[in-house]
Design goal:
By secondary structure, the chain is an alpha/beta fold. Among the domains are: about 100 residues, no CATH class; about 50 residues; about 170 residues, P-loop containing nucleotide triphosphate hydrolases (Rossmann fold, 3-Layer(aba) Sandwich), CATH 3.40.50. Helix content is about 40%, strand content about 20%. The chain is built from 19 helices and 18 strands. The chain has a 6-stranded mixed sheet, with helices on both faces. Strands 14-15-16-12-17-18 form a 6-stranded mixed sheet, with helices on both faces. Strand 17 and strand 18 form a beta hairpin. The protein is flat and about 105 Å long. The two termini are about 35 Å apart. The C terminus is likely disordered.
Length: about 550
């Protein structure tokens, strides 16, 4: 269906890839992986013809339909969520709007009614032949799967947050059911329930799916082939993400061995040339070996994926009672989020806050962090508590115009240059990358920078709202290792099942009947609550 044949692409002096060869067949589920800036989004834009390539050629069917979900969704306004989503259904969506306009015209009774009725009949016939009378039901099913409540579906899309508008954009594309789905980090703004629904949807999807995703559980559940972009080269691995990691390690080991053998052979040949180049009797042999060496295609050492190392310095000791919430109530207008909520967080506990959309997870973290106060009752931090709070708002409060290094320096003015450069390097900004402006950082880079500031402070309480939301798999793994060795207290919200399973030793589930505490790991919570989570890593 989609065939890249010796495709090359570069931006100025930066070569993204050369001689890229791969084929994506109808119905395949493909994961696209690679470091930030390696060219994953460029592959998507080449497929959609939004960008051209420098050499080679790309073959695709002329009538192939493509749906592309990206992170830079534009502003929506002026429609309900239901109307906006249905508008994404291609010809069917356009026919739906035309039928509504014609029905309005017939109700008004103005204009040439014979012509309006005739046109209505033509549009209705086409609408019915395309399955139009299933459109609204399919739209509701997708929106419900992505976590929308009925009042949101019927409400003005302009009132939604950016994250919810991203869900609408995803719903539009899924409803359109194109031949090819290109999904750039589709789970970033979804909760666990919506992620599980999306996994099932994509697994059953009859068309082709090509996706990037920082959630390895999703990749393992959905994709059956991995295309890796690494240092300008593209390699294909048949299997899920776990298989890819194992196969890549074996592949890298074999290429390292081949490189070492060639280096040994080249050194041996060069020793012969150096030893005998001045002897006339050996001149013919020397020239023969020199020509042989010139013709040999030199291997390059394989690039090893280096996992960043994140370390918390030992924090100061807090009191035994770290956070105490007593009979807290919090509402927004008439909507009561929490009522009579009591909870005690003790030193060294690691609480995962679970719950459906709108259950009040972020509101609870904000009360714990002191960002907001309860309307009644209390939420207090204990003695000697120092807090690090990660939220999406904190990411937005990074200062435009500053470089990464300047942002770290402004946060910790007493730290040495070497200490701050080391910190920047540990979070994916080595060397000149520390000179990047905050303005141009990706979502993942902003997350890393915000977390770096918290790590440097070494607080004894971490309150983390979706800390892995934009992190790549390697940085996420490094953060998990750091948190497992961290001696302080952690309260967090996350939709990443591997992260939940690795970090939590307590779970608080917020339900419509009230909060339920589970004194155990996430896996134990799943077993005890009966809330099965397919794909959770054991």
């Amino acid at each position: 269906m989609i065939s890249f044949n010796r495709v090359g692409k570069q931006f100025g002096p930066q070569i993204l890839f050369t001689d890229a060869n791969f084929q994506i067949n109808p119905g395949e589920k493909v994961g696209l992986v690679g470091a930030n800036g390696s060219g994953k989004s460029t592959i998507f834009r080449l497929i959609t013809s939004e960008e051209g390539y420098d050499e080679g050629h790309i073959e695709m069917p002329k009538r192939m339909t493509i749906g592309y979900f990206r992170q830079d969704v534009g502003e929506y306004s002026g429609r309900t969520v239901l109307e906006e989503t249905k508008a994404g259904a291609g010809e069917l969506g356009a026919l739906d709007q035309e039928l509504q306009a014609l029905e309005t015209a017939m109700a008004d009774g103005s204009g040439d009614m014979d012509r309006v009725i005739e046109q209505y009949g033509e549009v209705q016939a086409r609408y019915e032949s395309l399955g139009g009378y299933e459109l609204e039901g399919n739209t509701y099913a997708i929106l419900a799967g992505l976590g929308f409540r009925q009042d949101q579906i019927d409400g003005d899309i302009g009132l939604l947050s950016g994250g919810w508008k991203m869900r609408v954009a995803l719903a539009r594309i899924l409803l359109g059911r194109p031949d090819v789905l290109l999904l750039d980090e589709p789970t970033n703004y979804l909760d666990i329930e919506s992620i599980l629904w999306l996994e099932d949807f994509l697994r059953a999807y009859p068309g082709t799916v090509v996706m990037t995703c920082h959630d390895r559980d999703v990749m393992n559940r959905v994709v059956t082939r991995i295309i890796e972009i690494d240092g300008g080269e593209l390699r294909t691995y048949n299997g899920d993400y776990d298989f890819y990691e194992q196969a890549r390690e074996i592949d890298a080991t074999e290429r390292e061995a081949a490189y070492a053998r060639q280096q040994s052979m080249l050194a041996k040949e060069m020793r012969f040339v150096e030893r005998f180049k001045a002897q006339a009797a050996k001149a013919a042999q020397v020239q023969s070996r020199v020509k042989k060496l010139e013709k040999i295609e030199k291997l390059t050492p394989p690039r090893r994926i280096v996992e960043p190392e994140i370390r918390f310095k030992d924090p100061s000791r807090s009191g035994d009672d770290v956070i105490k919430i007593a009979k807290a109530r919090k509402s927004y207008g008439e909507h009561v989020v929490h009522d009579d909520l009591s909870l005690l967080i003790r030193r060294s506990e690691r609480w995962a806050i679970m719950g459906a959309n709108g259950a009040g997870k972020t509101t609870l973290l904000k009360m714990m962090a002191g960002v907001i106060r309860p309307d009644a009752g209390s939420a207090e931090q204990g003695a000697s508590v120092t807090m690090g709070y990660f939220s999406q708002l904190q990411m937005e409060q990074l200062t435009p115009g500053r470089t990464v290094f300047e942002e770290l320096q402004a946060h910790s003015p007493s730290a040495s240059i070497g200490e701050l450069m080391g910190l920047a390097g540990a979070f994916g900004f080595p060397g000149k990358d520390a000179e990047k402006k905050v303005d141009v950082l990706s979502g993942g880079e902003k997350s890393r920078l915000a977390i770096a500031k918290i790590v440097h402070d070494s607080p004894n309480l971490l309150v983390l709202d979706e800390p892995t939301n934009h992190l790549d798999i390697l940085t996420k793994r490094a953060l998990v290792k750091a948190l497992r060795s961290y001696s302080g207290t952690i309260v967090f919200v996350s939709h990443d099942r591997a992260f939940l399973d690795a970090v939590a030793n307590r779970v608080l589930e917020l339900t419509s009947e009230g909060p339920h505490a589970y004194p155990g790991t996430y896996a134990e919570y799943v077993a005890a609550s009966g809330h099965a989570a397919p794909g959770m890593r054991q």
